[in-house]
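Sharing a chain and its predicted structure for anyone who wants a worked example. Both blocks are below, sequence first, tokens second.
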Amino acid sequence: MEKIKAMVDWCGRNYASYIEDSRINGVVLSTAKTFAELKQETAQSLAFHIEGCLNDGDTLPDAIRDGKYEIVFEKRISAILHEAQQYTTLAAISRITGIRHAQLSHYANSVSQPRQAQRDRILKGLHEIGASFLAL
């Protein structure tokens, strides 16, 4: 089964995903209010795109043409921080990671993207916050 990666961001008031994969002859974009809705929208948009490619006579790999693919969603830090704010605050994440609140806000609003080391610190901090909740 082929794996197709969809990158997920939080863009103001919606989740947004994009698939940019040379095997599908183009780019597929989707938006939705919730991550669950986004997953459905992305799957439908990709299927519609593949159908259009086939109707146009484009050549696609057999697995993709036959629907034997899986969409793998990779959340960028803006989407991760948006989801985390259902359970904690940027101030709490700032305290545990040592990353300035203003910088976290930039990441959460897709103003900038963290380096890998910063992303790892954020994820580690979120795991620590989660472990604290579980210890209650």
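Comments welcome. The first strand starts at residue 2 and ends at 11.
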